[in-house]
Amino acid sequence: MNDFGHSLPDGVDIRVWDSTAEIRYLVLPLPPKNVGDLSVVQLETMVSRDSMIGVAP
Amino acid sequence: MNTAHDMGGMQGFGPIQETEPNAPLFHAEWEKRVLALTLAMGATGSWNIDTSRAARESVLPAAYLNSSYFEIWFAGLQKLMLAKGQITQAEIDSGRMLQAPAPISKKLFAADVPAALAKGSPVDQPTDTTAQFKVGETVRTIVMNPIGHTRLPRYARGRNGTIEAIRGFHYFPDTHAVGVEEAQWLYTVRFDAAELWGKDTTASAVYVDCWQSYLLRVA
After folding, report:
1. What is the pLDDT of residues B111-144, one digit of tens each?
2. How would you classify the pairing of strands B138-141 and A15-18?
3. Which letter does DSSP use for residue A12 in this model?
């Protein structure tokens, strides 16, 4: 994750899912702070490939 | 086979280069053609997904590590078509058809592509057998070094874990890659990260989907 430019603080539980079969796993990213009033369309612009694989800051 | 595609635990490659937030699906026009070629040839039924993975994995390691995603796809496709007699090396070298096309049993037409993609190619199968392991049970993965295709990464062989979930009854890729349609129970196995990487790991756990014959009962 450091190689992706995303360092986590100590104490965060890191679970790695290796997709070795035909089952695929998608990460539901935590919302960034202060997004309470944003619309779905605005929120969609904040979701990247990296956030879907769990490595976006 | 233990080669360059099985990268779990390998080090020294440096930082991930490409972290643009909205990475394009394709980085060059030819990549679209390789995807289309691969889908079109896959739809002929000449091989299955595990055969095509095995073909990509058989690219020599030095070339594999120097190739992009779709370069590896293209190399794998050429290997499969050569093996099936659908192209010749002379045709690859010249970029031209030099012999009559080999007959194929199915064709994918452009209008049918969205429906074919939406349908997919499920590998789970019906069964009247019962899964050998239960959720929460401790298991140990086998040690093996097969010369063919496998989905058990090197880093997860000979390790203890616990059954996290039972995922159904799926074609066994190791033999499906050579055309044998036999299914097994598939499990998600949770490994303590320290069991795989040692006590200095920063991860908590790694989950790997394992077919039943990868697993041994731990008394």
Report:
1. 999 998 898 888 999 999 999 999 999 999 999 9
2. unpaired
3. -
Q: Is the pTM of this model over 0.80?
A: yes
Read off φ and ψ for residue B103, nearest 5 degrees: -65, 145
Residue B22 has pLDDT above 70, yes or no: no
Q: pLDDT tens, A3-38? A: 777 788 888 899 999 999 999 888 777 777 778 888
Measured distance CA(B201)–CA(B193) in Å, rounded: 7
Distance of CA A17 to the CA centre of its chain: 13
Distance (Å, whole) CA B108 – CA B78: 19
Residues of B in contact with A7 (CB under 8 A): none
Whether residue A18 contacts residue B197, with contact meaning beta carbons closer than 8 Å, is answered with no
Q: Which of A5, A23, A49 sits opposite B23 (nearest CB)?
A: A49
